[in-house]
Structures are given as structure tokens and as C-alpha cells.
Amino acid sequence: TSTQMMRILGLAYRIRGSSDTVFFSADSIGKGIAANGDTNPQKPGNIHSGWFGTTMRALASKSRPVGYVNFGISGNSSTLYQARAKAQITNLKPSIALYCPYTVNDTPSNAMVITQQMARTAELLDHARTAGVLPVLVTPTPQSPTLALELDLVAKINAITSAPVINNHPAIYDPTNSGNSYIRAGMNFDADHPNAAGHLEIATLRTI
Prior knowledge:
This protein has helices at 28-31, 44-49, 51-62, 78-92, 111-130, 147-158, 196-207; strands spanning 3-8, 11-16, 21-25, 67-70, 96-99, 134-138, 165-166. The protein is of the alpha/beta class. The strands form 2 sheets. A 5-stranded parallel beta sheet has the order 4-3-5-6-7, with helices on both faces. The protein has a two-stranded antiparallel ribbon with strand order 1-2.
């Protein structure tokens, strides 16, 4: 089978055949909520304009069609979307599976929860590899937990050497903007969700 090189979210992967699929299981931010002006989880514009979908379409236009599946669900805890990711990795057998270890829906936001999130991440990585799927981790965008916990989690994800990591956090992070969940001015819809400009900024940096 012929092969070609393609840029996937800033990381180079070898693409085989014509049925390559990128799968993403996440919460509302992964789904694209607020990318089109509100938090309606059924609004097609939100899903279409989110950073993940925007990135996938941009990459496909630079190379060839790339299948992508967004299994983000608003309000999901990482327990729920990790279980969904494991099931769909087995069922869909995508080429690449994206997974974000953190969601603000895991409460309370404390060190114990982060330990549990990282344990679920390790389990997901093992499951993907066993299924012959390339797992890729995604750091969270700035959200409402304390800054120290958030930066600790991002550092833990970036330190993982057994899987590629897409670091979304810096795209809209402003360490001086404490009154805005440390999100850059003009880039958020609320304390947790990027707005249209924020989603586009993340997508733009992923495809440079």
C-alpha cells in the first residue's frame, strides 16, 4: 500500500490507504460547545465550528479526505468518556484516537481527582495499543480549577513519553488573566468554554 506523510495536529504520522479515521472522545469542549455562540449541545454549528472539526477539515484540504469522529458529549465525566473511548476504539478501530485526561466535570477539582484522571489515561493508552490504534493525548484548555492544579496536570500530560501529546493549553492561556480563568481576553464564552475565536485559535495552531 502506498504511503504518504501528513501533518495531524502538528505531529507527523504515516498514513496508509484511504480509510484513515481520527477519533476523539471528550466532554463539551471537545464536542465544540460555544464555538457557534451558545451551549446548545445539539446545535450543528457548535459541533462543526469546534477546534477538532475545524482542524480535521483543514488537514483534509491540504492532503486528502480524512475521516473523523467526534464523540464529545456535554457534561460527561472522564469516567464516562474514557469508557466510551475504549468501546469505540474496539468497535471503530480508528487509525488515531485522541483523548483528553482532564474535564472540569470531574469533581471536586483536587489532587486526588487528577491522580484518578491520570490512572484512567494510562488504562486508555494500554487499551488503544492493544487494539492496534495510535493513542494521542490532548491537554485541556484553561478552565475553572485552581491554576496550580491545572498547570500540574498539563505538566503531567506533557511528561508522558509513551504517547504523542497535543498541547492545546498554551493556545488561549494568559497567566495574567486570573479573573477570566486564565483564558486570553476575547477567547472565551464562559469560565470553561472557548468561544468561536478561541476554538479557531486552537485549530489554527494545530495546523500550522
